[in-house]
Amino acid sequence: MNKSILIIGACGQIGTELTLKLREINGEKAVIASDIHEGSNELMQSGPFELINAMDYDSILKVVEKYAINEVYLMAAMLSATGEKFPEKAWELNMNSLFNVLNLAKSGKIKKVFWPSSIAVFGPTTPKENTPQETVMEPSTVYGISKQAGERWCEYYFNKFGVDVRSIRYPGIISWKANPGGGTTDYAIEIFHKALQEGKYNSFLNKETKLPMMYIDDAIDATINIMDAKPEAIKIRSSYNLAGMSFTPHEVSEEIKKTIPNFEISYSPDFRQKIADSWPKSIDDSKAREDWGWNHKVDLEKMTTIMLENLSLKYDFNY
Ligand code: VAH
Question: Is 215 in the active site?
């Protein structure tokens, strides 16, 4: 069957680069980007775009029917930090958008769904090192609660209605093309921009806050790999643990100093410190590796090089 793909939330940090990659693979006409507002010039010029409110079933259905969509990547969500400022809105967006897409699949209007979960499903009582696929999950953020609930609904729709929905628990995602939006791990992106713009960064997480992270290319590869896997390979229909690397603000600042020796970091933890403290330090993603061949490629050193090289072009910075 020829793929006709709809990406909801295509203008976000992951959605932008996922759209570009899927268009590279499948051709621009096969991939419809959508969001509640228009996106970057690069995204808007790369292929078809539709305005969709992810909470409005009819606005999604209209585009699904217009393009005979058979696969949906639902990338729209309110992330952890913003979700703590607007808890009801976060719950509404994160849950209603998921129900809309699961119900489209249940009715047979689409064949396959990707929905991102997050390591935010884990909470303060979860083992912090090498967090297992199955363990205690008592999330303490609205974002984490919505992702935990969403995982249960994905598994329910698969078991009850045969909906082919696949999911990954993303760690913090690092990228330079599209700005992040309201996450707790965003410090790991901001630090590179500030290092080049100002030579210093005041981190909103403290020095030793170790969190699971991943470079965007690995996250996009994992997303496409799990969607291309044979159905029988997907043995977990809630969501798969996924990990790339784990590091602290101190460790990433030391890596930056190898290129920008005078870079200075300071620490002023804010409300996001409590969120970060509730999350794991490292993740056991052996199930994803066993079931559908996941393997990350980018480590802290390589990620730092990529980020500084690309952002120095953007800021015209010679180091
Ligand atoms: C956030 N970037 O910080 C997201 C992510 C694991 C963190 O889900 O909210």
Answer: no
- Catalytic choice (143, 170, 187, 201): 143
Rounded-to-5 percentages of helix, strand, coil across the chain: 45, 15, 40
Write down the pTM of the prediction.
0.96
User: Which residue segments constitute the domains of the chain, with CATH numbers given?
Assistant: 5-171 (3.40.50.720), 173-213+243-314 (3.90.25.10)
Neighbours of 284 (CB within 10 A): 17
User: Mean pLDDT for each 10-residue chunk of the chain (319 residues)?
Assistant: 94 96 97 96 95 98 98 97 97 98 98 98 98 98 98 98 98 92 95 96 98 98 98 98 96 98 98 98 97 95 98 85
Q: Which positions ≥6 away from 310 have C-beta within 8 Å?
A: 176
Pocket test residue of 82, 147, 184 for ligand 1, highest count of atoms within 8 A of CB: 184
Q: Whose CA is nearest to atom 8 of ligand 1?
A: 118
Decide whether any atom of ligand 1 lies within 6 Å of the 119 Cβ: yes
